[in-house]
């Protein structure tokens, strides 16, 4: 009955998927995504935008409360915990990226962790419950993105997590709440009315709110559906429904539940090595390689005074074309800044985007010599773009290098050791070592964890000694 429409089909799949259908590959990839998201979220609690939204959210209170990551004595109602933690995840643009383009994990994980803490104590949410709901949320985002060819390119009009992330969060929370098929349809309909955010707010403090709102609004949609609120039962089928966001929207039914093929099995995510727009990562690797050649030939430091011009061959992505960024958020969305920083320093890091580094005279001098070119074959897709960096010296000689796949891309994923190093570096000054190690162990064994509230306890900075009865695996 329910599967006669695309919306009904989605509701059937959301309701019907079970943990036995998670493949080993999906489990391993999603655990990597969860660990990375927790790490960038904890680091994000040190940012200005996090402190502003956290301070604002303190005006809300309820009998139920959930953890604010990195804080022992600060809790908020589940909706606002999802919001604030979601903002933290994207506050530095350090979270994972998928293809077609979106940031999948940040819209889902904060909502699920906040929701899991709102269940009665007698109703334990296992790690496997969390993994299943998380993957349902990721899957819904990917399937919706595949309904549009337009979505396969870097966005131009709206920020995808604000649309598909909201829908994914609703689906994930609907799964954790065990909503029936009708309630799942209503959750999707409600979420669709929360969806959307213009790309004009990229490179500002507002962009992280897109992820926070996606987490919060998806959770709220599922909770309202549980209360019986009803919406359009064909929201995914209609041009005036999800089709409102894409000019070429072509919805399709999902595969059958029997032997369900997860998109994450077919398409891994990119995990960033430094906090900036994904397209800049090709630039960083190419520029770092050019720097090595320049330093070798000069037998000293980078010969800035001998550089006449720097040419970056990149796809045309207007909101990442920023010749003279004035803030950290603009710098994170600037081909030019990342290229010049990598040329000067040899690599990129969290510290690259400090005010001191952004405004240093040597970088400003190099920015003035930098130009972009957009070759016709360099399409704005995270699956196919490339970057070529060419530095022309006085005298006419040119040194170039090209990056087609950076380290961290799904074609060249981070090794486990490097993923852990990123997490540890992000969390080092936020949580005690025991809590940090507790998160790593819990995530790596998530499918065996009986009660995933242990994760929330570690996220507050407490050690395993605070919860000996919870810390055991199936």
Sum up the structure in keywords.
474 residues; mainly alpha; two-stranded antiparallel sheet
Plain-language structure description:
It is built from 18 helices and six strands. With 474 residues, it is mainly alpha-helical. The chain has a four-stranded mixed beta sheet. A two-stranded antiparallel ribbon has the order 1-2. Strand 5 and strand 6 form a beta hairpin. Helix 2 crosses helix 4, helix 4 runs antiparallel to helix 9 and helix 17 runs antiparallel to helix 18. The chain is globular, with a radius of gyration of 22 Å. 53% of the residues are buried. The model has no long low-confidence stretch (mean pLDDT 95).
Q: What is the H/E string?
A: HHHEEHHHHHHHHEHHHHEEEHHH
Radius of gyration, in angstroms, nearest whole number: 22 Å
Whole-number mean pLDDT: 95
Shape type? globular
Residues in β-strands, percent: 5-15%
DSSP helix fraction: 40-55%
Which runs of at least 5 residues are low in confidence (pLDDT < 50)? none
- In whole angstroms, how far apart are the ends? 37 Å
**Strand count:** 6
Class based on secondary structure composition and strand pairing: mainly alpha
Biggest sheet descriptor:
4 strands, mixed
Q: How many distinct helices?
A: 18
Strand order of the largest sheet: 4-3-5-6
Secondary-structure blueprint of this entry?
Layout lengths: L5 H11 L7 H21 L3 H10 L8 E2 L7 E2 L1 H13 L18 H8 L10 H19 L18 H13 L4 H12 L14 H20 L36 H4 L13 H19 L8 E7 L14 H4 L3 H11 L9 H4 L2 H7 L2 E4 L13 E7 L4 E6 L12 H12 L5 H12 L8 H7 L15
Parallel strand pairs: 3-4
Antiparallel strand pairs: 1-2, 3-5, 5-6
